[in-house]
Structure prediction request, 69 residues.
Amino acid sequence: MIGELDIGGIFLPTLLGIMALAYGLFLVVHALLNRVHFYRLVWHRALFNVALYTVLLGAVDLICRNLMT
Prediction:
């Protein structure tokens, strides 16, 4: 994405905002997966969490790009 977010006169890259939104979504999904004991089925929890965050980041970016056009 091209552009910046202007927050109180401070310019931040758009990707930083998307990453923050994806991280918030990750925390919600992570809590839900913990609650239903999904992580008992996962071989490598840290690797799964990185992959989950990457998928969520890609989904949020795709949604944001479609909303901007």
Observations:
- The CA atoms of residues 8 and 17 lie 14 Å apart.
- Residues 4-68 form one domain.
- The chain has two helices and two strands.
- The radius of gyration is 15 Å.
